[in-house]
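Encode chain A's predicted structure.
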Amino acid sequence: MYRFDSRGAFLPKFLGGVIVLFCAILIACYYIAKQANPIMLDEKGNLRDSHAAVAK
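Encoded structure for chain A:
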């Protein structure tokens, strides 16, 4: 029967912490990007029409 010893206990806790930190950063980036409300501009600095391309 396998008995858990304390020699390998650090790695799963460390990797779990890294995963939790990564998820927290993703959630923070989502909320920051949601509040940003960017204005899209074209190459000349005019407002970009987001629904349809304007043919000229």
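The chain has one domain: 8-56.
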